[in-house]
Amino acid sequence: MLSASSREFEIERLNSQVATLEQLLAVHERTSLEQSRRLQNIVNSVSDGFFVLDRNWRVTWLNPVAAAAFARIGVAAGSLLGRSLWTQIPEEMASLLWPHFQRSMNERNQVTFEIYYAPIDTHFEIHVWPWEDGVSVFFQDVSTRKLAERKREQMQAELERQVQLRTADLQAMLAELEAFSYSVSHDLRAPLRSLDGFSQALLEDYADKLESDGKMYLDRIRANAQKMAQLIDALLQLSRVTRAELNPMAVNLSAMVAQIAAELRASGNGRDCQFRIEPGITAEADPKLIEVALQNLLDNAWKFTARRQSASIEFGLTQYKNDAACYVRDNGAGFDMKYNDKLFTAFQRLHDVRDYEGTGIGLATVSRIFKRHGGRIWAEGAPNQGACFYFTLHGLASRAAEAKLA
Amino acid sequence: MILLVEDNPDHVALTIRALKKNNIANEVVVAPDGAQALDMLLGRGEHEGRPMSMPQVVLLDLKLPRVDGLEVLRTLRSDQRTRLLPVVILTSSDEEQDVVQSYTSGANSYIRKPVDFMQFLDATKQLGLYWLVLNEGPKIAANG
C-alpha cells in the first residue's frame, strides 16, 4: 500500500505529465494547423484549378481557380461541396469527364486528357490523380495554347501550299527552259548553217566573178555565222550546267587537267607553253561539270598566254587564308583588278575581241559550276602580269600533301 | 544509194553539195519528213506495196515534221525488213538526251552538223568513206 503522501506525490507527477502532454498536443495542433494552412495557401495560389473528390464522387474541396471555372459553366461553388460532381455539372461536361475520371478511380492510375467544351469555347487540360480516398483533379484552361497551335498548323499548311505552288512554278519554268534550250540548239543553228554553207558555195562556184572585196565580205558573213554558233553553244552550256543533275564523286583533278593540257598542246602547232601540274589533287565533285569548268579555265589560260614567249600555266593546291584552294595560274595578258567583279558576269569581256576572241560566257559558266558545288571561285591578276584563278570544292586534298604529313 | 531524211531544203542542198564535193556519186533520195521516210522504206501509204530498194545508209535528222527522227528510228528497228539498216543520226542538236535516246533506239552513229561548211564537208567525207566504202553492211534482202 502506498502512503497518503506518496499517493499525493504520484498524483502530482501524473498531473505534471498530463500538462506536458497537453502542451505538446497544443504545439502539435498549432504546427499541423499551420502546415495545413500553408498547404491551402499554396493550393489556393496556384494558377491551376484544383478540386478533390471522395470515393462517392462528392466534392470535398476546391480552390478559387476551380470555383471560378465551375462558375463559368454555370455551377456555383457553394452547391458543389459535399455533393456528387455528376449531379451538379451540366450533362455535356459530365459526358466529357466521366470516362477518364472513372478510369483513374477504378484503375488507381494517373490520367491526363484534354477536352473541348463548346458552350464556353474553351479547351481544358485535365490531370486526375488517385489518392487513398478518391481522386484529386488539376486542370488548366489551355485555349490560348490551342489557338496558337491551330494558328501554327494553319500557317504551316499555308506555307506548305505556297512551297508546292512555288515548286510547281519552278518545275514549269525548268521545263520551259529545257524546251527553250532544245529549240535553241536545233532551230537557231539551222539558219547559220545555211548562211555559212551558201557563202562558201558562192566563194567556190563564183570565185572568178568575185573581186577581192566581195570575197572578203563573204568571209565576214561566214566568220559571223560561226561566231554566232559559238555564242549559242556557250549559252547552251551555261544553261546545261544550271540544269544538270549533280552526281558528286571522288575526282582526280590533276589527271583531268593533264588530259586537257595534252589536248591543248596537240592543237597548238608547237606553241611554246610549259604546263606545271601538281599531281594527285582530288575533290568531291561531279566529274562532267568539273571538267567543263577546268576546260574553260585552261582554255582561258591558253588563250591569254598565246602572245607570250615561254608561256607557263600552273595547276596546284594551296592554302588561301583558312581554306584549301586550287589554282590555275598563267603568265599571260592578265587583267585589271578594278574589273574583278565583271570577270564572272555573262557577256562581260575585259579584252578587245580583236586581241582575244571569246564569247564572254565561259567564266560565268565556270562560276556557276563552282557555286552549284557549294564552292567558290575568285581571281587575282594585273595587266600583262598574268592571272590566277582560285577555286574551292568539297574534299579538296592532295596526295602529295598527305604523303608529306605521313 | 543514200536516203536523206531532212525537212530543211537548204540543208538538203548543202548536204548534196557536200557529198558531190567529196566525189560521193551514190544516188541520194530525199524524204522531207519522217512519215514519208517510213512510207518509202516500208512500202506504206503513197508507196503501198512498192517500197524503195534498201539504201546503204539512212541519214536521219531528229527534228522532223509529222513523225520525228526517233520515232522513225524505232519503227525501222521494230520492222524485220529494216531492223539492221544502217542509220546515222545527222542533227544540229548535241543535247545528251538526244544522243542517248538515239543510241538506245538503235542508231548506228550520231553526228552533229557543224555550222562551218568546211567542217561539214570533212564530216561528210568521213561519213561517206566509212558507211559507203569501209563498212560491211548486213545483207538485207531486196524488198518486194
Give an overview in words:
The complex is a heterodimer of chains A (406) and B (144). Chain A is of the alpha+beta class and 406 residues long. Chain A contains eleven helices and 13 strands. In chain A, strand 11 and strand 12 (387-391) form a beta hairpin. In chain A, helix 6 (143-205) runs antiparallel to helix 7 (212-243) and helix 9 runs antiparallel to helix 10. Chain A is elongated, with a radius of gyration of 45 Å. The termini of chain A are far apart. With 144 residues, chain B is α/β, with parallel strands linked by helices. Chain B is 41% helix and 15% strand. Chain B contains five helices and five strands. In chain B, strand 4 (87-91), helix 4 and strand 5 form a beta-alpha-beta unit. In chain B, helix 2 runs parallel beside helix 3 (69-78). Chain B is globular and about 40 Å long. The two termini of chain B are 17 Å apart.
What order do the helices and strands come in, and which of them pair?
The complex is a heterodimer of chains A (406) and B (144).
Chain A: H1 4-45, E1 49-54, E2 59-62, H2 64-72, H3 77-80, H4 85-88, H5 91-107, E3 111-117, E4 122-131, E5 134-141, H6 143-205, H7 212-243, E6 249-252, H8 253-267, E7 273-277, E8 281-285, H9 287-304, E9 311-320, E10 323-330, H10 362-372, E11 377-381, E12 387-391, E13 397-398, H11 399-405
Parallel strand pairs in A: 7-9
Antiparallel strand pairs in A: 1-2, 1-5, 3-4, 4-5, 6-8, 8-13, 9-10, 10-12, 11-12
Helix pairs in contact in A: 6-7, 7-10, 8-9, 9-10
Chain B: E1 2-5, H1 9-21, E2 28-31, H2 34-42, E3 57-60, H3 69-78, E4 87-91, H4 96-104, E5 109-112, H5 117-134
Parallel strand pairs in B: 1-2, 1-3, 3-4, 4-5
